[in-house]
Design a protein that fits this description.
alpha/beta, Dihydrodipicolinate Reductase, domain 2, 8-stranded mixed beta sheet, 6-stranded parallel beta sheet, 14 strands, 15% strand, binds nicotinamide-adenine-dinucleotide
């Protein structure tokens, strides 16, 4: 374990209710010219912080169109790692040239470079071997976008470093762990006028885009309520050495809240127009007891018992309720421990109907409007034939356009659709669907939920990272 990783873990040791993490921010924070002081301990955590002088909003930031998008990958990774998978998707779009790769473990960066060489006949520059090797990489003048697929504590230092060096940052989920760091992303994006795009692939799932398209076309009428989650039994992964388990399990003995909010929340925030016409206002959060990870460890004795001293505090199931400025409600859950099938719930209700996913179901108040039979009215889900008709009418144009090309890509193809869409925006110089405001507000739920749990489920305000822009912004449209 390297020194700064050890520092990070020491700095984030739980103090009292697990708030040590937030006081310390990340071990890397102070190094990049942005304060690492525990602002959130001095301020109302949910307060909207004033825009520092010299910054401009980025909600409609456009940039110079590019022939090819030159990308670099941080966390080049290993065959099962996220960096490798994102790099393959980027190459597959044919919109990019991969000019540099970096991984702390240099042999992994070399492996990533080899993949690029085989795919394109050109080898990217290779960086690695030290935790700060990426700092040299971002200084290069042949990079437009830096893709960040490293452990969570590195996301913000790397995204800030990339933007400060004039590059757009494409950062994996969650973009940040602390509210202070969410503000750092927003402030850096505004100061540098570079995009900070969180790579929330779940916004580009076929069902999510289907629901978005129906919502924008008024199928759900006035939107009132949504439900979403990240429910994924990851117990096995949390004890895997040399990959995600090595660092991700640490959060289970440091925090009790929603540790991974954005896969469920991102799509739902887009349906409701959060940051664009509506805004998160406050949340309350409740956790179940921690039981499952301890029980799994006891039963399986992973890695010969080296984890036996760890005391897990994160409740197996966390349930967070978010209220929005327009009065809507969102139920958001996190459970990576219980033995149960995968689900992001992905539900939306309004005056005109309700959608629930896993499996996809739709009930409509007035199916006849769409030429459907709807024999039992809104008390039953649509029959298969009616659902098929709705899909024919409302499958998102992006899916129709990229369906063939996305076959075989990660997570049922949505990883490719996401990558294509974001790169296309950078290539054309248009504003990506997801801005620093989305990265910040969706990610901020991690700390805010833990704070609510830590105070007996008291309401906690959610900052307005757009600083009022949400009131005049239009909800995300249906992009062809
Ligand atoms: N969107 C999705 O569906 C999805 C899926 C999996 C993972 N992720 C996210 O992707 C990120 C990476 O996950 P993973 O499973 O690949 O993790 P991993 O631990 O398997 O891989 C991370 C890589 O980053 C490297 N690394 C660590 N510190 C570094 C540094 N300072 N400089 C350069 N390289 C460094 C490691 O050596 C490793 O190769 C995480 O944020 C995770 O949450 C997202």
């Amino acid at each position: 374990m390297s020194t700064s990783r050890r520092d990070f873990l020491r700095n984030t040791a739980i103090a009292g209710l697990g708030m040590g993490l937030f006081g310390a921010a990340s071990a890397q924070a102070g190094k990049y010219g942005v304060s690492s002081s525990a602002q959130s301990d001095k301020l109302d955590i949910g307060a909207t912080r004033p825009r520092p002088a010299g910054q401009k909003p980025v909600h409609d930031l456009t940039t110079k169109p590019l022939e090819k998008v030159r990308v670099a990958i941080l966390g080049g990774g290993h065959p099962g790692g996220r960096g490798t998978s994102l790099m393959r998707d980027a190459l597959h779009t044919k919109l990019v040239e991969v000019t540099a790769v970096c991984d702390l473990r240099k042999e992994r960066a070399e492996m990533a470079a080899d993949i690029v060489m085989k795919a394109t006949g050109k080898s990217p520059a290779v960086y690695g071997g030290a935790e700060d090797s990426w700092e040299e990489l971002v200084k290069r003048d042949d990079i437009d976008v830096v893709i960040i697929a490293t452990p969570w504590e590195w996301h913000v230092p790397m995204a800030v470093g990339a933007m400060e060096a004039g590059k757009h940052a494409f950062v994996e989920v969650s973009a940040a762990v602390t509210v202070d760091d969410c503000w750092r992303l927003v402030d850096t994006s505004e100061r540098t006028q570079r995009h900070c795009v969180m790579l929330e692939n779940c916004c580009y799932g076929e069902n999510e885009l289907f629901v978005l398209n129906m919502a924008r076309n008024g199928v759900f009428g006035e939107l009132t309520h949504a439900e979403c989650a990240y429910i994924h039994d990851l117990r096995w992964m949390l004890y895997q050495l040399g990959t995600e388990g090595d660092w991700r399990r640490a959060y289970h003995h440091r925090l009790d809240g929603n540790l991974y909010p954005t896969h469920g929340l991102g799509p739902v925030a887009q349906y409701l127009g959060v940051n664009r016409g509506d805004q998160f206002k406050f949340l309350v959060s409740v956790s179940s007891p921690e039981a499952g990870l301890s029980a799994y460890r006891k039963k399986n004795n992973p890695n010969g018992g080296i984890h036996n001293e760890e005391k897990y505090i994160c409740g197996d199931m966390n349930t967070t309720i978010i209220k929005t400025e327009l009065g809507r409600s969102i139920m958001l859950q996190h459970d990576v421990i219980s033995p149960r099938p995968y689900s992001r719930i992905n539900a939306l209700s309004g005056t005109g109907g309700t959608f629930f996913d896993y499996p996809a179901r739709l009930a409509l108040d007035d199916g006849k409007k769409y030429g459907l039979a709807v024999p039992h009215g809104s008390h039953s889900w649509l029959e298969d034939a009616d659902m098929k008709k709705m899909r024919e009418m409302f499958t998102h144009p992006l899916i129709n356009r990229l369906k063939e090309a996305s076959k075989g890509a990660g997570h049922g193809g949505m990883d490719f659709v996401m990558m294509y869409r974001h790169l296309e925006c950078i290539k054309n110089g248009t504003t990506p669907d997801s801005t620093a405001y989305d990265a910040a507000s969706w990610s901020s739920i991690l700390e805010l939920s833990a704070r609510s749990v830590g105070t007996g489920s008291c309401p906690v305000n959610i900052p307005d990272f757009t600083r009022g822009l949400w009131k005049t912004m239009q909800p995300l449209g249906i992009i062809a």
